Every structure is written in structure tokens, then in C-alpha cells.
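DM between two lab members

TW: hey, do you still have the Beta-phosphoglucomutase entry open?
JB: yeah, one sec
JB: this one, 214 aa:
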Amino acid sequence: MTGLLDNIKGALFDLDGVLVDTAKYHYLAWKELADQWGFEFTEADNERLKGVSRMRSLEIVLEVGGISISEEEKLAKAEQKNERYLEYIRRMDASELLPGAKDYLYRLKERGVRIALGSASKNAAFILEKVGIADLFDAVVDGTKVAKAKPDPEVFLLGCRELGLKPDECAVFEDAEAGVAAAIAAGMYVVGIGSPANLGAANRVVGGLDELAG
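TW: and the structure you got?
JB:
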């Protein structure tokens, strides 16, 4: 690590695509709904769901299929999708942590950096427990605590408050364009996890946390 990352007091991590890959389980659960409605929901379509709330994700799936349902049906289908997703993540264990994730979290803890999760997922705390890293987090801000989805900065600003730090004292680690935009709007240094082609607005882009943990 070099530069500003050496001096941060707080680190806020997105969950899916940064620490673990649960996107594949979200995709399978949404695809099952699309199959029931009789249209194809591709992995390319699924890219639009990264970093957004469950209800907004459902609306995008419906848009892809040209489907219109009532608000009551939306709530029922979102719950059905979540139950299917939960069936997948209940089987998760530490082997599903992405390369370098645990090592980098430990490195930050050793430096006295405070760590928070900033995720749209309402299952974030459960997943952290399943993969064995919950005790490394000083705060968990997830879909149960925020009203506005990324790219609104609410999740990261609340994470800063829970860590007792200012935005300019923190770095955000994100794999989605909406998350990078949220971090920038919050006034934080942002590390994109993934491809520079998608995350060029970030201050720095790496392929994974293993590049920082080494």
C-alpha cells in the first residue's frame, strides 16, 4: 500500500464482489423468478443490479422482462427471491471469502484502522458470521439501517458516524459504479475493486484485495 491508504483511520467495505462473491447467488435467485415469468435474465442483465436495493433490483428484473405487477405482488416476489437466496448463503463458509480479503482486514486491524461494512444487503451481518469475519468489523451498516440506495452516500456517511470518524479520514472499497459514486459523493477516498473500464472514477483501482494484502 502506498499514499493516502497508509494514513486512513477508517475503512468501509462493500460486501458483494469485494469480500465475498454472493452476486452469483443473487443472480441464480433472480433468474429463477424470471424463469417463472417466462423470460431470459442474463448475467449481463444482472450487472445492473450491483449495489442497488432489493426492491430496485426487482424493478429492474421486471423492466427486463416487460412485466408489470402490483405493489403487493412485488413485496411477495421480493420475499420469495430472498428466501431462495438465503437457502444458498446458509451453505457459505470461510472458503467463499475472496482472495486477500481476510489478510487485508487483519492488516488494517494491526494498524489500528477502524473497519465498517457499507452494504445494501439486508443479510450482510449473517454473511459475515457465516464466513467467519464478523469480529473484525467495528460497525455494520446494511440494508436494515439505510433508506436510500447507492449512489446516495447515506450508507457510507452513516458508517463514518458509527466509526466516530470524518469522511476524509476514511477509504471505501467498492466493486460497483453506484458504490464508487456514493463514496465520491460522501467525500471519501475510494478504491475500486475490479476493472478500470467500469470504475475509472475511483481514486485507485485494483483487481482484488489480494493486491493490497500482499
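TW: got it. The radius of gyration is 17 Å. The first strand starts at residue 10 and ends at 13.
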